[in-house]
Automatic annotation (TrEMBL):
Domain Glucosamine/galactosamine-6-phosphate isomerase stretches: 9-229
UniProt keyword annotations, A-Z: Allosteric enzyme, Carbohydrate metabolism, Hydrolase, Isomerase
Site (Part of the allosteric site): 146, 153, 155-156
Molecular function per GO: glucosamine-6-phosphate deaminase activity; identical protein binding; isomerase activity
Entry annotation: catalytic residues: 67, 136, 138, 143
Organism annotation: Pseudoalteromonas luteoviolacea (strain 2ta16)
PANTHER family given in the database record: GLUCOSAMINE-6-PHOSPHATE ISOMERASE
Protein name: Glucosamine-6-phosphate deaminase
Family of the protein in this entry: Belongs to the glucosamine/galactosamine-6-phosphate isomerase family. NagB subfamily.
Amino acid sequence: MQIVILKNAAEVAAYGADIFEKQLNRKAESVLGLATGSTPVALYQNLIEKNKQGEISFKDAVTFNLDEYLGLEGTHPQSYRYFMNEQLFNHIDINKDHTHVPPGNAKNPVEACQEYEAQIAAAGGVDVQLLGIGRNGHIGFNEPSSGLTSRTRVKTLTKETIDDNARFFGPDEYQPHLSITMGIGTILDAKKVVLLATGENKAEAVKATVEGPLTASCPASALQLHRDAVVVIDEAAASKLEHIEFYKHIEAENQKLQAHLASL
């Protein structure tokens, strides 16, 4: 697991966007795993600007989102399909037919989950998977106690997650308590995983992910098993880590190595 500690949220977003830029420029038909929530928005803004400047293209890319509320149509303002259209897809040169979000309005959610897995496999698997992290360590909607080999499935949201997301819903607006989410096993199948976290309110979850034991109590700790996982955090989110200087030293040495290899 690579730990990258940056000064602030803006630097985190820029670093994450650069990973996606390199991936698209290396492989135009990349399969990108995307996430919703407040943390990825700044990264998406970076990607939109890079696309406008001609630095990257999404014309041949395929995307799969982590999750969706069960019971919401894609046109609902609180659905994650609507979020992705507004925050990214409507502003870049991507074919909307190549963008996939779990169907929150599926008549048979169990079959829809199996179909989503099949679609990912048919696309060749995810090249780079973007993740945020919840205060309780959830990734996607994989709440604590989720199986570390779980696949795309219907998941009940915890009260903590419901309360955290309540700010996005009006006082009289229906807020779903169920979701469809990629499983932890599905996420770990991605060739590269990039987790972004900013702010002091994510510090405990980051510590549990990076320095805690591998446990279903912190779903994000499963990233310790991944061969190419990058955790990109700001100083506030890193504030509870015990080995901050060590991580900074290792990253500095890694940057020197990458620069040396590039010069050969």
